[in-house]
Amino acid sequence: MAGLELLSDAGFRADGRRPEELRKVRARLGVLARADGSAYLEQGNTKVLAAVYGPHEVRGSRAKAPPDRALISCRCSSAPFAGGGERRRRPPPGGGRAGERAMLLRGVLEGAVLTQLYPRSQIDVHVQVLQADGGELGATVTVAGLALLDAGVALRGAVVAGSAGLAEPPAGAPVALSDLSAAEEAAGGPRLVVAAVAPGGGQLALCQLSARLHQDRLRPVLDAAQATCRGLHAVLDSVVRARLRRDTAMEQ
Amino acid sequence: MLRTEKVLQLRGQQGRAVRVVREHYLRPDVPCRSALCRSAQCRAACARDGKLLSDDVTHYVVPDCKVVQEYLEILEFPELKGIIFMQTACQAVQHQKGRRQYNKLRNLLKDPRHDCTVFANEFQQHCYLPREKGESMEKWQTRNIYNAAAWYHRHCLGQMPVVMVTEDEDAIRQYGNETEGVFVISFKNYLDNFWPDLKAAHELFDSIVQARRERESESQENHGKEYPEHLPVEVLEAGIKSGRYLQGTLNVNKHRAQLEAFVRLQGFGSKDTELQSDILIYGSKARNRAIHGDVVVVELLPVHEWKGRTVALCENETEDKAPADTTGDPMPTGKVVGIIQKNWRDYVVTFPSKEESQSQGRNAQKVLVTPWDYRIPKIRISTQQAEALQEYRVVVRIDSWESTSLYPNGHFVRVLGRIGDLEGEIAAILVENSICAAPFSEIQMREMPVSSPNNPWKVSPEEAKKRLDLRETHLIFSIDPKGCEDVDDALSVRALPNGNLELGVHIADVTHFVAANSYTDVEARARATTYYLADRCYDMLPSVLSADLCSLLSGVDRYAVSVLWELDKESFEALRVQYTRSLIRSAYKLEYETAQALLDGDTSVVGDIQELTGLAEETRQKKLAELVWAISRLTDIARHVRARRDRCGALELEGIEIRVQLDDKRNIHDLIPKQPLEVHETVAECMILANHWVAKRLAEHFPHQALLRQHPPPRQEFFTELRECASAKGFSIDTRSNKALAESLDRANDPSDPIVNKLLRSMATHAMSNALYFSTGSCPEEQFHHYGLALEKYTHFTSPIRRYADIVVHRLLMAATLGGSTGDVKDNIISNKDLEELCRHINNRNRAAQRAQKQSTELFQCMYFRDRSAESDERCVADGVIYSIRTNGVLVFVPRYGIKGAAYMKNKEGLVISCPGTGSCQWKPGSLHRSQHKITSTTTTGDSLTLSLFDHITVGILVQSSRCHAETIRLEILRNAPHSTADTAAAHRSPHVVRGELVKEVSQSAEEAQRAQDTARVEVLDEESRQFCQTKGPSLYQLLEEIRELALLDVTQDGRT
Known about the structure:
The complex is a heterodimer.
Chain A lengths: L24 E5 L7 E7 L2 E12 L13 E8 L17 H17 L8 E11 L4 H16 L7 E9 L7 E4 L3 H5 L4 E7 L6 E7 L4 H33 L5
Parallel strand pairs in A: 4-5
Antiparallel strand pairs in A: 1-2, 2-3, 3-5, 6-7, 6-8, 8-9
Helix pairs in contact in A: 1-2
Chain B lengths: L1 E10 L5 E10 L13 H7 L13 E4 L1 H11 L7 E4 H11 L1 H12 L5 E4 L17 H19 L6 E4 L3 H7 L6 E4 L1 H8 L4 H23 L11 H10 L2 E8 L7 E6 L13 E4 L1 H4 L7 E6 L6 E4 L16 E5 L1 E9 L4 E5 L3 H6 L6 E6 L7 E4 L9 E9 L8 E10 L3 H11 L9 H5 L14 H6 L1 E2 L6 E5 L8 E7 L5 E8 L1 H4 L5 H9 L3 E2 L4 E2 L4 H7 L7 E11 L6 E12 L2 E4 H8 L17 H32 L9 E5 L5 E6 L4 H24 L5 E4 L9 H9 L9 H10 L6 H14 L4 E4 L28 H15 L4 H5 L4 H35 L10 E10 L2 E6 L4 E6 L6 E4 L7 E9 L3 E6 L4 E5 L3 E9 L7 E8 L6 H8 L5 H10 L20 H4 L29
Helix pairs in contact in B: 2-3, 2-8, 3-4, 12-26, 19-20, 20-24, 21-23
Function (chain A): Non-catalytic component of the RNA exosome complex which has 3'->5' exoribonuclease activity and participates in a multitude of cellular RNA processing and degradation events.
InterPro entries (chain A): ExoRNase_PH_dom1, ExoRNase_PH_dom2_sf, PNPase/RNase_PH_dom_sf, Ribosomal_Su5_D2-typ_SF, RNase_PH
GO molecular function, one term (chain A): RNA binding
């Protein structure tokens, strides 16, 4: 069988999207009553759930707690039924891909949360991938940002992450693809994941590129990834606002 | 934009069905690309790329998947306009027809001259229909395409009729009248109605239909395929049982790989096979895709179709020569009807050079590569790196061989090295023999005990208590080649108080360090033997064991397994025997030459014995006297044991061993035949004795699961050539039993020409089958016999460092002697079935090791002669002896270098050789005449040259280079007279001199070059010689390196072996 064609001559991707189109996004806030903040996000068939506990006092040894800011602890996991090949084998020491995601997520959140407002306290963020279909890292970061918003933790801005890849048709110029699906990730091209804090400002909290990419091609891919972030932000922003309208009596 | 999901059942990596859910987005704004379209949304989308379907055609045509796949060539006609390719159809082409066809379709769609377009119907929200449960793929595709065609018609507001062409009769009936303005007809109908004048299209259509029909009928009738299909397994099994088919292993004749192959039958001698020889498979059609080494099922052809094997000398390059006049007597001939087991492995190949690849045509994606092994057919590789890989030896694997394909398909695996480069060629030899000798892994090394200069390994006191301590009581010493590091056997002899002698053979206790099924054990089992190549070796065990802890070096305590005999003082009959684990300290590590000198009473070599230096003169003399006494006692014992074996008919067979002498830069300096010493034989005889007694003990204790070594008696028909050759010199060889053979070989001695006897012995060696390991449970006791050594039971026990069989035997012996007192001993016993499997593996590996060694020796020989020619270099001219006559040449043995090779008397242009007087030979037109013992060439000018068996001639040695294969040595006849120099005279006299004389001769001329000698006697190809030369360690990288050639290079034997 011929290899997967990322972009057909007619300009469609394998699942019918155009290069710049995102997958269908659905989000809900406050799905878990016990958590201080929680969120659920669907990006196509990728489904993730996040819960935030805190800020609360540091548990365990207090010596670990930084005196001037909050400690953010992140745990990421993948449901056994999530698919995507993560649960096939026992994860390697260090936590495998989920462990890597937790580390990256913590880096992003430490940049996004105004930690100095919560000295000697701890914020726990738990994210679980319920169904994996590409872009798990991006969805993890995005849903964690939503859950933090739901918990009312002070942020520099909304946290959104998105991915982009590059289709190189045999003839013609390469085209950047926004928001890769699992099939497109598996096709082996480059994949760039970008997390932005307050997507309007152009600040990046995370930038991860897998596979080699010529520097001339980086710009369009990076632009596409940022466009993904902006697009996601637009959708999520309306979700958050709708939630606010419903929950508070501020309006009228 | 709507979102739906597609659920696909795909095959996962392990072949399981995997459920995959893919998103599928539907949208309203799919461009229709028709100039007729008035919809604004569509217009905007279409504006992106220019090509639009014109509006001045009478109709639009929508081909079905099947039509696009089969009749794309017709759709390419520029006259056909207004074609809409549906996305569904395009994807079907992509998935089912492959990349080439799909690219053709894509180019067609892009071509602005063609009035056609693609419509992404599956992404259009009104066109897409999900596949229903139970609906076949084809039905769904047709339904989808029809639906899209109908939508298209509506989309264009009915301005243009749409014709859907399909080959599906049901669809024509079902959809034909469903929508007004959308017609569903067959492609033939379409062409007839709409394009009646387009002759070319009709003709093309007919030819495609015909080609398709032919293909279908071919697949039904097996017609037009390159090869007939193999029969199903049940048929084969039934056929074998009923005796209709025969099963065996395919051996391709290396020298006529295109044509001749032989099948050696399995279960030979069973009730229903009266065949007394192999079955000839003539031609590649009859071979039917079987590759050398496969286990195949053959059907015999009727007797009038039987053919004879070719007896003319021939080169591999020459393809099908006229075989008519060169064949021998007809022999059973058959054809392959099925393959039971494919023994495909990694193959070393060479890509065609630039000139060749151009002639292969412009389809550069598929390259026919030539395997290094002549017996393997060319392999078709698809790669784009063909040009870059031209200069390299490359490893490939065969993937499949379809019956429609002349050559097998394969893929590229890795690069070994440049052609002609020593490392690359050695790597090629390793791969060809499936030898994997990677360095030992960390996990294996971790199992090893620690021994470093700072922290040397010590005997543990608990272990010492369990063992018989021989450190103080016995004088133990080892005799090995110079520079050896892995000493796995040591000897001792002492007089007992009652006057009897006690002989001890002490073997390194490897099993103490290598627990059964440990990582090291598993690795050693996989390797099965240490591999000795001409200039290096690959150890079976990590060097910490082989060169240190298990090596019975002098002056250090070592664990050993000892066999101790009490021998009668007069007759040397064994009275008592004891097998035990022991703790020994070897007193001397002697070299063969030193031991021989001591035996001969030559005390000048005392200085060479390190252990004796630095002692007071008196103690030194005393110790020396003890040692000399021990060596001479040993020799006495060995002579007696040998004589006893000789009475039973032990064979002494001849092989010529060549040592490669390398200079500092590891260039080949010289090739030197090895010289035997009596001490070699003494040591060997002790080892044979130990092996024999251990075998007896094992066979008693484990009647069904002991690992022994058998040497089946040879088939009589293989001796035919030997008998004929001997009769040329007037000798008669009696081959009925090993005793008769040994005696008649001794008698067949021409006093004037010692080479004759040597050649006859080597021919006898070749007629023998190989000795094999076997499990006692797998064959009846009378077959345990060892033909070559004339012993009823034999095994390998004495070299556990470099043979895995010995490790198994050690474990068995421990289990037998300790009586299963400890628990873990029980685990070491392998069941008969597993042992059989293990034996097969070890036998295979041994054969691979021998082949690798032989091939590496040939490699070095070729490298030695490569840059020299007979004119410029005296070393390339040597004396040769004719040992076989063929129709167009003779086979010649060169004693000086131990080379056997073919010399032609008729060259490719049909000229024959002639030797006017004693001058050098010339090629002239003429004819050849062959009789039984001689061959005569007669030129048109009347000169004639007669060569008979065992004539001495002068030959020039040259290397025939070959790009794709190993280089080979070629001989050419220079003069019809012996080549005599002092050098060659010595070389062919020495092996034949009576042994005692020889010993003196050699010990007197203690040349530097002759020190690191090995033995020159090869018992039954490899049997005992393994034991003498066991000790080649890493020191082989040094200046003087030795090699041993197990079998002579003989072109006639390869079809069989």
